[in-house]
Structures are given as structure tokens and as C-alpha cells.
Amino acid sequence: MSVKEIVFSMMAVMVIVFALFPFFRKREVKRNNLEVKYFDALRAKSENLTELGLEYYMNLGLDEEGAKRSIENDMAHTK
After folding, report:
1. Distance CA 34, CA 31 (A)
2. pLDDT tens digits for 21-50?
3. What pTM was computed for the model?
4. C-beta atoms surrounding 19 within 10 Å
């Protein structure tokens, strides 16, 4: 490969990465906000802890049963 081919390949990859960046960044920001809200509610033993926990864990990709188990586990470790 010549230097020009390598440079053009790298530029193409950079363009693709910057084109997809906003989509992944929005998901990351949403996930981080949910995580902060959930762990703040966990620390404060808030009333809406289960609701926030379900939303957080389901956003991570767990099913409802797995999310409930994780919430119970989190609550058991914060007492």
C-alpha cells in the first residue's frame, strides 16, 4: 500500500466515526444520567428507587426479572 492509500483509508474511517458519534453520544449521556439518578436514589433510599432501577437496568439490556434481582441485590448491599 502506498502512503496515499493509507491516508485516504484513515480519513474515511475518521469520517465514519464522526458521522456516528452523535448517535452513540446521546445513548451514553442518557445511560449516564440514569445511572446517576439511580445511585443517588439508592443512597438516599428514595421511594421511587424501584422505578428508577428498572429504567436503568432495562436500558443496560436486562430483562425485567434480571433488573428486579439486581435492584434487590443493590438494596441488600446498601443497608
Report:
1. 5
2. 887 788 889 999 999 999 999 888 888 889
3. 0.68
4. 9
